Structures are given as structure tokens and as C-alpha cells.
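Sequence in, structure out.
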Amino acid sequence: MTFPSTISPPLPIPPLESGDRLTQKEFERRYHAMPQLKKAELIAGVVYVASPIRYKSHGEPHAYIMTWLGLYKAATPGVGLGNNATVRLDVDNEPQPDALLRIEVGGQSSISKDDYLEGAPELIVEIAASSASYDLHQKLDVYRRHQVQEYLVWRVYEGQFDWFRLIKGEYIQLEPNQEGIISSEVFPGLWLATEALLEGNLARVIEVLQQGLAINNK
């Protein structure tokens, strides 16, 4: 006599779930099998699956960052810009940064045959909820070890913006000048009016960037 089973049959490819410990190959296999999933990362061998994106705490800040970086790319030949692009760093780390800039020729990263970024881009930006986020802990350590030259973290809930520069293998936080502007040491002319950004004054952010570009292009 056969009794019906209440246990579902195993899935051919298990779904990605936060906390899974996977190899890069298995991470990519499961990610490809979930086309509805928009963002998942492998950090130090551990899977992080993103929650649905909120507007004020992520969607809008992300749009401001992409506008700022997009204008910089438009004025700067040889610079590549990525939005939520997966980055293969090593077998245990495959993050998907909110934004990145890379030097296209002679830089640290390259495009693989299957259209993934491999190696560390020169600049990464992450939108984080707070200082408790893994963006300022696990990911910061991974980016440092892989020599991401500049790392920017916008802590939305705390109203803070951290800009780190890799110096002799350690991240040193860059401070704004008297006008509240931080300047990239890797990408000439990439200026950011941090207070204006935190206030949502995108017009001022663009104005300051244009000043930096004008000085760089003299």
C-alpha cells in the first residue's frame, strides 16, 4: 500500500538563500536559475540575498550616485561605469556593487568572455543602511584585500558618507575640504559635495562635479 507523501520533491537546483556557504561555481549556477532575483552576492564564501529595494533609503540615493558618476563618465574618456554589475574577485567573493568606476585600458579589471567583470575596479560605491551593514565590515575587508583603490559608502539612515582610499594596503578615510568637497585621488576631477548629496541637492552635486572637471581639463 502506498501512502501519499507530504514532502515536496527536491528542486533540481536549490534556490539561493542568505547564509548559504557556496563555491563561486555553485553560487553562479543557482543565481542563473533564479532570473527573478535581482541581487545576490557571495562575500567570503557566504551568500547575501538583497531585500526588496525601498525608495528613500536606497532607490533615490542610488539614482543620485548614478547621475553623478554618469556625468563624470560622459566627460572622461577611458572610464567604464557599472550599475549593479557582478564582479568576480576570487572563488569566495562575487559582489554586486551598487555602482563602480573602472579604468578601461591598463586598469585592474577586465571583461570575461561570458561578459562578467573580473578583478577589482578602481572605485566602488555602496548604499548602506547604517554602520552596522556588512558593506562596512565584511565587504570593506574584501575590497581592501583585493585592492579596490577607492571605496565609497553612503550610510543613509545615519546621514553620513564615507570615502576610503587604499594606502599601503589599508583604507584611510578621506576628509572633505573647507567647502565640504571630497576629491578622488584616482579619477581626476571627480569631486563630490558631500553635504549637498546628503541633503538631496543634486543640482549642487552636479555643479561641483563640473567645477572639478573644468579644472582637470584645463
